[in-house]
Amino acid sequence: MADALKNVIAQSLECPVCLETFTDPKILSCSHTYCKACLDNLLECHGNDQTLQCPVCRAETQVPNQEVSKLPASLALKSLIEDMKNQSQFCTNCKSEDKPQAAVYCQDCSKYFCSTCHNKHSQWPDFISHQVLAMSEIVSDEVSLRRYRKCRKHPKEDEECFCSDCRRFACFRCVVMEHKDEGHRIIEAAVYKSRHLKSIEDLKSKADKKCLCFQKYVDFINEQKEHVSNVQMQCTHDINKAFEESVQQLTERKELLIVEVKGKTEGVEKELDEMKNSAQEHITHLTTIADMVTNRTKVPSDMDALAAHDTLCQDLQDALKQEDPDYKQPIQSSRKGKGVSFKENVGMNELTLGKIVNAVAKNIALPTKNSMDAMVITPDGRMAVGCHTGGVEIFSADGQHQQKVLKDVKIRGVGFLSDDRYVILDHSNNVTLYTLEYSKLNVMFETLSDGEGGFAKLTVDGNDQIYVSYWTAKKIQVFSPAGGKAIREIPCDRYKPLEIISYNDYLITASGDKIRLIDKQGVVKYELRGLGYFPYAAVSQGNTILIAKVKHGVGLVSIDEYTNELKHVQNLVIDYKIEKPGRNWYYLQQYRSGEIAFCTPDRLYIFH
């Protein structure tokens, strides 16, 4: 009975997290106890949070200043653990009351043996292969015991079974009495542990893969930081160089001016000195004559004179639910930094150091000159440029021309449905659907002809609704992918929708020098006016709005970022010189990897 009690006590001294005997046990506010090191690990998983969630009951405990050491210690458990460690282990096989101390422990029999019992045990043929541990190894913690927990209802019985439905271990007697009903799935405890360990290994493998994924992301960010740092160093070097050159020019200019001033002033000083000397000579002459005269008339007499500065697994599962890392968000930020450079002002009348510019563009000639009529990002993140002469040209983010599709279709607008089908608006204002393999689908849309509606443009929203805008009719028709008649119309009161872009639950329209954000009923929510130039809008990968302002007459483009309320955020490109096309027609888009694509009828510019 004493051995059974001892086993029960030993089981109670195990931490529910690490399943080892408590070390420095700390008590949570819910009264559950864990090792201090285990609580430190749990708290570290929650970052800067000062709240610990109990892995057993999920109750929360406040940890002052994130220091687990300040939680109350379980002094009773500490004392009991020390007593258990210091208590000698006696042979559990001997029948006499005066039992000798154990010399070994048999992992397979789950019994302690004295030297005599061990000798007999080792001679039994069936027990030769049993794993036997020396007590000296156990006491010194060189090895750990593999033993079944003892049943609390039947202390002499091992919990050798596991009920999958009740989620608990049980001895054979408990299984017969309490888990015999239909629906109780009983397996050996060893089998369950083996499966559980396999599940833990799989979970650990997934966690390792997730960590590797995020580590690659961290390495990528460090790489981008290094690129930006190199740009900063280069700009600093260039600025210092320009400054030194400017200082040198100013110094030389200063010396020339000093010499010039000195040349002009020294002559004046010389002239003044000559005048002064002449006056002094005159005074001296007068004094001398006066003295000669007065000395003759004065009566001779004597004269005198007188200047300072999870709950474990659950927590791991929750962590695994986290989305892979979105590579945009780390790509959008790195491009802006690498595009920064220093441009010295040369040939200007006034002496200035120069200015910082943050736009470097790759300039790609379109395969067909003066052909671009539409541009949109593809489902796989490339750029599709639609040509009115026929076909859709596909470009990668680094500007490589990769393919041409739908070669015989004259394109006026391009869009994509969520299943990656092409939506094409041709030069007769007909909308047609094509498969991924560029096969035309038998779906008809009752759009307005060029004569009825005028020039048309197209966009597709996140719900696969197709919008076709008309300049002359001053309205937008909305179609479902099933085709047929428009399911509704959106009026564009007093303005022509020259451009149309889907944006969340809204549409962005461009007309003249104005950008409008309208809802799906046509109500203008926000308006940006007075831009002074022709504006072209796009939705950024960060869900903000990009607007390109083009000075067509002089071939300059500026690109700015705005909020969803059309409030200015920042300048991205300032007066970038482009090759002026013959036709005043442009498009703006952004690659998923962060590059901004600006297309003229002749060329594609990709800003990094």
UniProtKB/TrEMBL annotation:
Domain B box-type: residue ranges: 86-135, 146-189
SMART domains: RING
Xref: InterPro entries: 6-blade_b-propeller_TolB-like (IPR011042), TRIM45/56/19-like (IPR047153), Znf-RING_euk (IPR027370), Znf_B-box (IPR000315), Znf_RING (IPR001841), Znf_RING/FYVE/PHD (IPR013083), Znf_RING_CS (IPR017907)
Annotated GO MF terms: ubiquitin protein ligase activity; zinc ion binding
Keywords: Metal-binding, Phosphoprotein, Zinc, Zinc-finger
Domain RING-type: 15-58
Transmembrane residue ranges: none
Superkingdom: Eukaryota
Gene Ontology cellular component list: nucleoplasm
PROSITE patterns, per the entry: ZF_BBOX, ZF_RING_1, ZF_RING_2
Pfam families: zf-B_box, zf-RING_UBOX
Signal peptide segment: none
Protein name: Uncharacterized protein
Organism the protein comes from: Strongylocentrotus purpuratus
Lineage start: Eukaryota, Metazoa, Echinodermata, Eleutherozoa, Echinozoa
